[in-house]
Amino acid sequence: MNSGYNSILQSTQLSQVPKLGKRVLGMKYLKESDFLVDIAQDEAARLTKLAERAMGGPDVPAPILVLGVMPRSGSNFLRDLIAEHPDVYPDPGRLYEFPILHAAGSARGFMEDFIAMFPRNAEVLGKWDALAMLAGAWMRELQAEAGNKRILLKCPHVQFLSLAPIVFPNAKIVICLRDGRDLADSTMRTFKRRSLARKTLTQIAHE
Length: 207
Hints:
By secondary structure, this protein is an alpha/beta fold. The chain contains 9 helices and 4 strands; from the N terminus they run αααβαβααβαβαα.
């Protein structure tokens, strides 16, 4: 099996198999809900408090998150530029990419499985609780390494973007955009032409 396809398949939940199939067949496979999750205001406030408590309170140095609209959008360049500031601590924990939002669907799946084992847990838990607590605790651990400096993390994806200010409530979030024509051209040139996991030009344009 193609190694690129195999690596994606290994990290894909069963619920994501139809999406993966569409991607391999060259069809449109992303929806607006993959980027913008609808969360009620009171639920967002509750999740923010969960994340803040896990982070150690609202007064820790604000992390900087550089998110690329998609790969080849310039997130590496922007990360390198911000990392030059003396008060910034880049890549704590040697995490050269931090795709926690990109993997948010898996965190949601974990909570759904957890609640399904004892449905009454749904009275006190929500499907994004694990993500909020994980994000906060992870930031606290990385901040301990950085001292008083602002930690800098990056990811070239914006899936589940609307969750970012909720689970990273005090973060400085930078969205890196690039002209779509240049981005599409760079993507087509960069990734292997014969890979089953490679996106078509139409898929890139749609994304």
